[in-house]
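Can anyone check this?
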Amino acid sequence: MAGGAGSGSSEILFPPARQTAGLHGEAACGTGGCSCSVISCGVWPGAVPTLIFVSFISFVIIQLPPGDFVSAYAAQLRNSGDYVTEAEEALMRAQYGLNDPLLVQYWRWISNIVFHGDFGRSLEWNAPVSDLIWERLGLTLVISTLSMIFTWLIAIPVGVYSATRQYSIFDYLFTVFGFLGKGIPDFRWRWC
């Protein structure tokens, strides 16, 4: 009994997986012999339109308030005693592309991000947006990593203890603290 269909007793306990062809002839997902990628299993095809939609809605919401950066900048200069002429305002609008239609502005913005990695320039901070993101991202990653390590250092020993000493007083105590931790909302503290 060497290798024929139905010849082994293991096939009775574990029948061969039903093979259905995928996009390129490989086994479909969930059949045991899956060789699918993230893209062919449907994660990316749904994520890309969502990202495009969210970026477009965000861009439109930012553009909704009346006026633009140039008008706010000119008003700020007027309040401080400086004067900006209409010609200078028009020149700044042309320089920043604010006279273009909304879809043209969006396409310029998103294509610079996607194709060149250029997030633009922060007019408030007078610095490239990518620099502002990267200088804050490092600290964010450090805090996230440290909190994840701290959580693992607490959760894994508590979980092992509770699994090996089920129904003990400490198991009940850890369960109560676990439910309290899940039930209390996580507050975002702002440091002033």
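Reply from J.R.: I decoded it. The radius of gyration is 29 Å.
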